[in-house]
Amino acid sequence: MFIDMKTRLTALALVVLLALSVLSVSAAATEETLFERYIPINQAYSASVNPFSVTEGASYTFMIGTRFKDENKNMTFSDPLKRKDLQGYYFKLTYKGTFGALDKAEMMKAFSINENSYLLAMDDPSVERYANYHKLYGADTIIISIDLYDADKKFVQNVSPASAIMATGPDGEFLTFSMPQNCYNSIFFSTQDNILKPTEDRSSNSGRALHFTVEHLWPEDKGVAESLLASAGGQVEEFKYEFKQYPAVSGKKQYMTNNILSVNEFITPDNTYYQVGHKDGDIDPIVVNKIENVVGYSEYGQVLDAGYTRRSVLTADGTLYGVTTKYEKTVLATGVKQAGKAHYLTRGGEVKEIIGGKTIATDCKAFAEHRYATVIAVLKNDDSCYLGYTYLAAENAYSKGLSKVLDKAKAVVAGGVCGADNKFYRWKEEVIRKGYDEAAWSRGEFIQYNDYQLSLELLTDNAVRVFPNEYFTAEQSTAEEAMTGFVVNSDGHMWAFGLQNMFDMGELGLIKHIFPIYQHKGNGLMDNGNFVGLLPEENSKPYGLVANHCSMNRPKVGQLPVDYLTDVPGGFKALDGYTYAFDNDVNDGSAGRRFKMKPTEFHYLEDKNELFKALDTSTNPVGNLILLPNVARSSYHADNQNGNTILLERTDGSMWMTQIYPRASASNIVAKLGGWECSNAIRITQPTTKQTATVDYVDLVSSGTISTLFNLGGAAEYPETSVGAPYITSDFYTQILPKDADQMYKDGKSFLLLICKQDCSYCKKIQPYMQTAIDREKIPVYGCLDENGSVQFYWDFVTGNTVGTPLFVLVKGKDDVEIYSSAYTNTAVDVVLAKAKAAGIAAGNTPTTPAEPAEKAKIPSDKLSVSEYEWEVLRIANRERHANGLPALSMPAALQDSCDIREKELVTLFDHTRPNGERPYTAIAQLFKHSYVGENIACGQTTPAMVMEAWMNSPGHRANILRDSFGYMGVGCLNKPTKYWVQMFADVEGYTSVTTSAGTMHFASEADLEKEYLVCTDKNGVESYLPIDTAIMKKNGNTYSLALTGRTVALTVGEEKPLVFDDVKPTDWFAESVAWALKIGITVGTSETTFSPNATCTRAQIVTFLWRALGSPKTDAANPFADVKPTDYYYESAIWANKMGMVTGITFDGNTPCTRASTVTYLWKNAGSPATKVSSVFTDVPANAEYAQAVAWALANKITNGTSETTFSPDNTCTRGQIVTFLKNTLK
Q: Crossing angle of helices 868-883/944-952, nearest 10°?
């Protein structure tokens, strides 16, 4: 089969068992030269690359598109000349000369430079170079013109009258550069056809990522450039590659057969070390290093340089090898007994440094290094233990040498020591700050001086097992705070420990294996860390240890719901055959909250089928290639984004390897491979039934003692791959495996699935009718058994861990699934079958009846211009602020209007400057008052979550989102094929009132609460809005409080209790206010049956009522009052009132009766002391009284009236009924 692919010559072979088909392509040679030849349009792409960022010899990724700008700033591939209409067209490149030899005015125009810049490029000695001058081109820079020709090679138009050859690549690729109208315009000329589809008309800032290695930057010799680029116009060397698919393996499945040390290192059960890798120019990986008879190795590699580490490997003859990430293998020492990261122990008992060979201890029988090898412990032959810093630590710490810390020790491990009496101690480090270098500070440098002290801290008296080489960090923890080991005592009590930290995990039983269930993946705000799973000896359901924002950054342990089978990077494979890992979309606060099936995030395994696939993201019609079946685990995970040689362990114990080629960093190779992003799978070792002897723990007592203490049982077995005995015998019922249901769902098929358990009483009871009904209605039904109670599919089908009743799943297609979880009655079964028939399941047709949409939360689209995407960005932004202890943002119409303007302007000019040259903030209406503003912009992200992740991963954008001076945010999303996003921020002085879209602050349920939104009014009368999201609210009983700028609001959930006070009648003028105060928790009655509405209210009571009404805001201010004690009920409210400026002085006088003047003054100050014209209505309120404005404000806002038409009675005391009424009117 021959396919004409124009100038690219490719031969691709796919071998499936014994069948062979070859794709072969040929191309005619051409005699054209670089500067007088035609380049097919499908080999040219616009490129968003800044010439200042290009470095010779560097390898980097940039974005490509199919549009470029001509000298008039027109988009040549926009209407009417679209790329799809230009198929078969050519670019013609014509050599014009060198920069210095061509017309000066033409060069200045082509590169948008002034006279001074031109003279600098020409190296004119009379021109002074400024400090940050970057020379991009010079007098000898090669200049070409670029013209567009049709399929018959007839001239169409000029594209660029003068462009420079900017950079060349090793395969004949090159970039040109010009700057029409001061706009970067780079065109990438590739040797590949159709990196983008012919129909993809993309601007350069939203195209596809492409990898490019700069072979030569700004070439100045025409002959050199022609030589470098000659391959682009001539015969392309034929490329052949065979993809092979291997048959499945049979027999008993094995897991964790080999000891995988890293992404490309492992040790076999026969103690042979392998390092695999890849050499430039080759497609397939190879074994680069092999060491036999291995008896020890360093758990971690020693860093020799940036990105360059060395692992120590010890053989039985005492030879210590060093193997580096550059594939070097050297002999480090001989006569070695124990290997470490930075040290080794000789057979003569000396502990030596690997670098330099210095002896640091003698007469030793063992040693242990900390993970970072900065601390070392040695165990002497007399069982004494010494501890100290190594040459990798600070010089002043290293110079102290080793000190005895224990007279009798049984074992030393990384991070800890076990005494002869089985007491276990962790190494404890104390850092003592000793000041800073003042001279350096005067020079603008900061040098901190520290002293370091090591000691032992007792963790437990009766240790039985220790895991010394683990790693657990909380979210955004420092390396020094990391836990590097775990210890278990005879009661099953467990501790995690590190140099500067420890955590009591409680009783978990005897743990036999620890594995990472989340691995650090970058600089994102959420979930950075190395969380771990802990597998107990007694059962196969592991524990998860988590410490992140959902657990308030405190470690939390919880048992996970599915049975463990084997490790995979970032998670584990369960007995149900699926891979589980943390899910970043769930946020319920529990220790297991993020533990969910994640099929392909961490590796390429097709989980249930255990297939390793070569993923195809190109337009190649061949599709995905099943590369290797029966893969138990791989070493691939999300951090391998730049490509690696990775390991594939099959269920027969054999080890294989493949080379990963991500398109972003290896586009040339991916194109040659037909779009597939990895090489063939290549076998390294033969199948074996042996298991590695390596374990990740050290037992501190005998195995017999452990068995007696913990009464160990047998391990769980992997279930047979059988559908089990049929639940129903019917021509219309087919029992299948969960993987088969998954595949039908992924294929977009419509079907009815029945999930049941053989031992479920409800399932047994309904089984006869189920069979009768299915036969009667002739509805085809598929069935799955869930005997482990942990089966999960690609849709979330049940809340909880088990299926307690028969469960129907009506699948109408992808993302269209209906769940019926109570099908244990005849009526329920009939309803489901009727719905299936209505959906066309019986006839096998694609359903046409859409599912009933779930009720959505309200958005204020009638109040301001806001879409669901924009509203969701606000919700996510507020979660980010809440995680960082900041008040929530609200959305005013003025900022939304400005974002509507800016999102359209970004299409024309993607910059923080408007197309008219003004700053972006001029888009905000002048009547909108603000002191601080900020803007974030983005392009190309398709969802709110994606754009927020991009912004939070960028320091400048993140700073705007988390700036505490901002209280308002607008969001814009131009919903085009390429989305443009904008956030506009501003400050808010504070809110005078907050209510909800429902007009009430009380709701029957949390679900009802989250359907509404908040309506906030600031001191200038500006209304703004934000989603009600309980994830950013503090819950106390039935009250949810939310922190806003300068204010905390409280909402309540639950049944409203009727008034039960004998002294409050429904007809009383204060009855409604009393009910309101009780509902939101401001106060309670003076007894179970009385409220005492006419009792005098004290200063302490009014301040406390107001403080509670605002959500009991916390303050870290010191207590200024001599008469307020921590035991007083008003302790916190009094300090808060002082901080807010309501009450001053050194005494609070809490029991002083509160007057009407004092009450309105407190409320006025809480509102921000708004300027109000003093009223002359009341004759007893002098215009110069300190409370005059407060009285006028209260009157204007209908908080209270006078005691008569002409009097306010400022000195009269307030009653409890009056106070709650004042508060209700103020906070309405």
A: 40
